[in-house]
Write a structure and sequence with these properties.
The structure is a homotrimer.
Chain A: E1 2-3, E2 7-18, E3 22-29, E4 34-40, H1 41-47, E5 54-59, E6 65-67, E7 78-89, E8 93-100, E9 103-110, H2 111-117, E10 124-129, E11 135-138
Antiparallel strand pairs in A: 2-3, 2-5, 3-4, 5-11, 6-10, 7-8, 7-10, 8-9
Protein name (chains A, B, C): TOBE domain-containing protein
Domain Mop (chains A, B, C): 2-68, 73-138
Keywords (chains A, B, C): Molybdenum
Chain lengths: 139, 139, 139
């Protein structure tokens, strides 16, 4: 199966914290970064996700934000540092590719944001992804 | 491959409108509803998505909102009518399952919203999904 | 530090409702509007978010929908009225800026939606934001 979801990061589940309807799943990516996904408890059960499970973390490009440096005091759990490898700009939107440890991320952001942050090839950035925007695929 | 993404609706692509970096893809679901997905142009090319392509529309539960009836004058392109089949409530969040033509949708919404709208088994609802929240899988 | 996240609204936390893994945080914006954010409980604890905390509500442009008037019977908790100040249209997507009490919001929506709703400078709109799409930054 091919997915339009641009960001697919392989890793291994470190812990699962089940709630009543939601669960948070922490995964160590193959690139070394740790990420947190908030998914439905039902999905965790259906996929048999547990500590040690091989998964891929899936993130739609439109869910990836960029910061020009690490951000403290933020509820966004996932911060992945990297370097901009390319920027494609349209009239309203832009896609920014970011080389990160172990792979590449694509972020779809507004053209305004690219202009304001002066994002260009070589810019150091931190990709920000809200936990609720990460899905998991059983690898 | 198994996905934590709860909502996977099969259909056939009706049209593709390419922009510079994004594209909108209209799909007729097997249940008869038409939906619009805003994905990166790159994804459309990589997957070879074109009129007639068999796809599945993927939507994370946290991206599905519910209304108690059709809503006009709204930028949200996708409105799928259905009937609540079950509600599971936690302390902060709730999951609502909605039977729709041709399948079922799961929405993860706040407990507050379930209480305010008095959602229960049998409630008529319309599921609202923003185009940027729909991914596509080549079937 | 600069963020690609276009929408950053300052406010003060009014209440926190913790679940097992998620929490809902109600914040009164400086513009007077009240908003609800659904974030991980872990994030609330890490940031020490409690009643009275000064925060900024962060919302990615792709997560903001627009309606031409208030919508009732909707699970989307956050409805912020305003007036369109500008529209930038691409082939597939458009960005709409909305002046709201105390600031400005940017919404990235499909070009189709802008055409259908005839959004233009001066249009009265209500910005709709799902609770799960709001992140918080400690101010």
């Amino acid at each position: 199966m091919s997915l339009s979801i641009r960001n697919q990061l392989p890793g291994t589940v470190v812990s699962v914290t089940p709630g009543t309807v939601m669960a948070t799943v922490k995964t160590r990516l193959n690139g070394g970064q740790q990420i947190t996904a908030a998914v439905t408890l039902e999905a965790v059960k259906d996929l048999g996700i547990a500590e040690g499970s091989a998964v891929r973390a899936l993130v739609k490009s439109t869910e990836v934000s960029l910061a020009t440096g690490p951000v403290t005091g933020l509820t966004i759990r996932n911060q992945i540092p990297g370097t901009v490898s390319s920027v494609a700009t349209g009239d309203a939107m832009a896609t920014v590719k970011v080389a990160v440890e172990g792979g590449e991320l694509t972020a779809a952001v507004t053209k305004d944001a690219v202009d304001d942050l002066r994002l260009a090839e070589g810019s150091s950035v931190v990709a920000l992804i809200k936990s609720t925007e990460i899905s998991l695929a059983a690898a």
